[in-house]
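User: Hey, quick favor. My workstation is busy. Could you predict this chain's structure for me?
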Amino acid sequence: MSDDTIRLVTIGRMLRRRWRLLTVLAVVGALVGYGTSLLFPPRYTTSASVLLPGQWEERELLTQAEIATSSVVVDRVAATLGWPGVGGGGLRDRVSAKAADGNIIKISGTADTPERARQLSDQVAQQFVTFAARLAGDNTDPDTAAGPEDLRKMVVQTNRRITDLSEAADPGKTVEGVQARTELAKLRTALQEAVKKLDEADPATSRGTMVVMGPAARPTGEAAPTRTQFIVAGALLFFLIAVIGHLAAARVSRRPRTGPEIAAALGSPLLGTVDVPGERRARRPEGRGPRARIRRLLDLDIRWELPTPRTSGDEASRQLRYRRVCARLRDQLPGPRGLLVVVPDGDEVARRAAGQLVAEAGSDASPTSSSRGYPMLRMVAVSVSQPVVPDRDTESGALVVLGAGSRTAEELADVAEACADAGHEVVGIVVAATVRARPARSAGPPRDAATPALTARGHAPGGSV
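Assistant: No problem, here it is.
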């Protein structure tokens, strides 16, 4: 197909002509999405926030977020909740934590009910605060070593003892006394510097205890993907697949559209292109059975990729095209001879064009003149799946009439082969194009161009047609 398949006007044309099929596919996709949502139970998510007082670097906050979802914390949460059949491994995929602005760790929990989601988030936050406090050494175990406060008290008592020892030393009478007071002064200075460094390094001076900022809120809606999202996603997916499939099929289509392409597929000269006015309610190919009804219901029997018909001239200009084709036939044939007008079955445009050609040739036929009369034409419809053309009788050639882009090159080759098998030489090809007719301006009555009846199936020599 040409580059017309990638234009927006082509997509708009497809939506107008195949909207029923696209709607049905979208509904099917929505049903598939609904069925998929039944395989995934609803999930609810809520969050609890933990405040970290003091100054924290970004990497430290990320470390705390990792600690909040560690196996130690999650296993303790599972043991505390005691949900049947749910252990630490099952909860690890339902818990997440991230560092937010303002030294806040946001802990999220997901469960199959809103109440369980709230319990899970609250319990993870509590266990995280407890575990983080133990890591920081914030506990009241009497068997542990003395804390920084006890150490400060011991340093104050030592300073007082140093002062007492310095006052008790012999002031300036002996060298030993002076050395003792000097050593005691150095020891006091070292202790003061040690206490100062301890105060600077003590996290308790700059960071307080982590605080859970209230219980988690009870979730009011399902977590993504929800059932509605599954349904919408299924409908959109099927709709896009249908659109892309139509465009891909049109792109790889091997249906010849132009006259030279059709002539090359049939191996015969192109005699001309005729116009067929489009009907407001186009007649669709006849067919019975469930499959035919479904095709008509979904507009599958209408070619969507064909461009919008152009506006043609008046009735006189259209008849002139038919007369020119008949004149070329008369000039090309050596003498008066009859021709079969072969029309692919189901090609309504070609059928109407062939009927007009037969009527035009019959209105000016002259069997006694070889230079002025048009050849006698008889129209037959052949199936493109198994084409059978009547054997030679009064006709000694075939004229193929078909709509532009209606058949593939393989189908046209089969029609040409069927004509040759019946002893008919394909003398030419006529391409029928659908146009939008203008109102007739002539005052005279229109020329009667009744469409002759198709050759009855099964009565033509050589088999059914």
